Amino acid sequence: MRKNIVAGNWKMNTLPKEGVELANGVAEGRKEVCDCVEIIVCPPYTHIAQVIEAVEGKNVKVGAQDCATEVKGAYTGEVSAEMIAALGCEYVILGHSERRQYYGETSETLNKKMARAFEFGLKPIYCVGENLEEREAGRHFEVCKQQIEEVVFNLTEEQFANTVIAYEPVWAIGTGKTATAGQAEEIHAYIREVLRSKFGAKAEECSILYGGSCKPSNAQEIFSKPNVDGGLIGGAALKAEDFLAIGKAF
Ligand code: PGA
Asked: Is 231 in the pocket of ligand 1 (CB under 6 A)?
């Protein structure tokens, strides 16, 4: 009833030529992955256009990794949601922990970015997740709940229907430490419960992705859990073969 999604977050990796090669590899191998899985790649802004061209007609969607809070104007260095949409992106990652941590993004910032995304027809992949200290203090449920309440609860029902959630424990990102399938399911089920308290039965249709050192060797077990609807993949998305192998985990 809800979509399975495997999305690659390339972060600040690949030069244009490498990105196009990676996209070609993903596009080539995509047919080996079930059509029941949506495959998304999120390259750096600099080569989104080339990547879109490379995957055209190959059933691979493209997203950006962020967008500006403002619509247009004197905001040096920013890239607007409208610009991203004009390139042909369907998705935009918002609230990634690296943005929250290194660039001070708050719920206030993210409410604006979410609004911009919807204004220009982009679907947000909204990231939540606790850091190690919060996990060790047993505050992971509370942290995720707050990140959802402060942003996702402000959406209309229609906007929510076009939103993907990614649960990414900060302690598992790029560390090689993965949440166990049980830990992932526990918090995904909780996140769905939080969503249900606001959006009712619509929460059943929302895809909740797991992210954090997800790789071919652990994807199948994690994706087998009822409330895990796919993955947001960092490191392993930089090799077409590994990324596609994760897609095949469904
Ligand atoms: P990772 O990153 O797979 O390299 O841990 C995931 C992410 O940050 O989206």
From this structure: no
